[in-house]
Specification:
The structure holds two protein chains of two kinds. Chain A is of the alpha/beta class. Helices cover about 30% and strands about 20% of the residues of chain A. In chain A, strands 3-4-7-8-9-10-15-16 form an eight-stranded parallel β-barrel, surrounded by seven helices. In chain A, strand 12 and strand 13 form a beta hairpin. Chain A is globular, with a radius of gyration of 18 Å. By secondary structure, chain B is α/β, with parallel strands linked by helices. Chain B has three domains: about 90 residues, Elongation Factor Tu (Ef-tu), domain 3, CATH 2.40.30; about 120 residues, Rossmann fold; about 50 residues, Dihydroorotate dehydrogenase B (pyrk subunit), domain 3, CATH 2.10.240. Chain B has five helices and 15 strands. In chain B, the strands form three sheets. In chain B, strands 10-9-8-7-11-12-15 form a seven-stranded mixed sheet, with helices on both faces. Classes of the chains: A alpha/beta, B alpha/beta. Chains A and B meet through strand 5, strand 6 and helix 7 of A and loops of B.
Chain lengths: ~290, ~270
Amino acid sequence: MAQLEIRIGNVTLKNPVILASGPAGYGAEYADFIGLEKLGAVVTKTISLNPKAGNSGRRLLETPSGLLNSVGLENVGADLFFGEKLPRLLELGAKPIVSLACEGREDYLKLLETVSGNDTVDMVELNLSCPNVDCGGMAVGTSPELLNWYVSSARQILPGRALLAKLTPNVGDIAGLAEVCQDAGADGVTAINTLLGMDIDPDTGKPIFDRVVAGLSGPAIMPVALRAVYEISSRVRIPVLGSGGITSVTDARKFLAAGAAGIQIGTAIFYDPGLPERIISAVTGAQQGKE
Amino acid sequence: MNMNRGPFQAVIESKEQISPSTYMLTLQKPEGFVEAMPGQFVSIKIGDSTSPLLRRPFSIMDSTPGSLLLLVKDVGPGTSYIVSRKPSQTLDLIGPLGETYFDIPSGEDAVFVAGGTGLAPLVFTARKWAKDHRIGISHFLYGASTERELLTGICREDFTYVHVATLDGSEGFEGDVVKMFNVLREKGALPERYLFSCGPAGMVKKLMEGGTENFKSHQTSLETVMACGVGACRGCVVPLKSSGAPVYRAVCSEGTVFEADDIDWENWRE
């Protein structure tokens, strides 16, 4: 039998194909289009302690082979998530990885305690691209000190659970920050989150998005993600999950060749919801070919 | 438990150019396509290239046992791809999408107001209600820049009265559709009971400013940029009026049909 399983911390995923946090919402929204139970895992939309309405103004802008988004972590908050959304995802037979907002320290610790009290969650992914209000809005993931605090706090409060750190590419040395996560107790890293971008209306001279900057995803960022995975894989011992613009079976194979233990698919499901299952078939076929 | 909502490969049965920029596509209804409701839409993949990247949403203009009708205005590379497809070729679509529909108590009179391709969901609504013997007298108000851009040729039979407006006065009322609405309303020519609209936000906003408060209900189907089409990504939200924290609803999954009064039009960027 082909060895498709991947192991992150104490948790085994049945295959390396995972839905990335964000595009797939809480998973159930895509149940008519994707066999969620066939996937290695589904990373949920990022959850914060309290519900978030998300950003005002425009939230989407298509770019050449890419998509800028300024959704602003709209989510139902921990209570409704653990009470309704997560049970629904489990009911669908999916393997959830819960994405956690790394915002204000106090809320973050409370959020970790909530996760700690829920025994249906054995793997979380820290969204380290959240702007940190304690530090003037700078993303947590750009500072080694903050990264260390957020990851080690999660390690302490969630012993025995698998802990993924999702890295922002908007830094100088992403592999160095991956090492910080490893040393702070992360069981794996996901690379990369969206690249910061913006757009301007040339007639008014004003930014398109109320928050000025937005996150770029989609095929346009694939080479950046691939480079990040390649660099990180050579520097850390823990598994790396590749994410960023994976659009085809070929892309997935490139990430695995770059050292990724698994891959996450995001923006592509908007137009090609069959992609995750095609990648699973291809990976299965390739494995069987080796035997 | 899950519904089959695609992706389907829908075969184009026919394509008819009904104005310089707009085409009516008749697609063979894909096997297993769920019965659609007025206000629902399909989302079409733009070829195999990644630019344009996202699917494009289109209101369903009619759904018969054998076919699906769509109205496509050629406004950019995405829609250009769609209208370049020929009969017997396919389009990759998902749907029906959208969770709220136009609704009317049985036997009531209705006023429909549309601009551009906003005509599509209103035609579907009128046809479905006529089939169900649900609707009384219907007035359809439609506006375009000029006579050549009027799309009402395809739906004259679907309403009791069709009123057209052109900005240049080349046919019907001279002015925009909202101005015509106000003139007709002031003359008492419209039954002020149930109002249904679909068009650019600017049109619906102006419609409300002109006076729709006598209507018992004004339902509007919103058009906007979407990514997922199924409520997952929260990219296509519209703000609702709220005295406290902001409230957003996804046009794709919590619409497309809203009570026009509930929407915070000032803060909505389509």
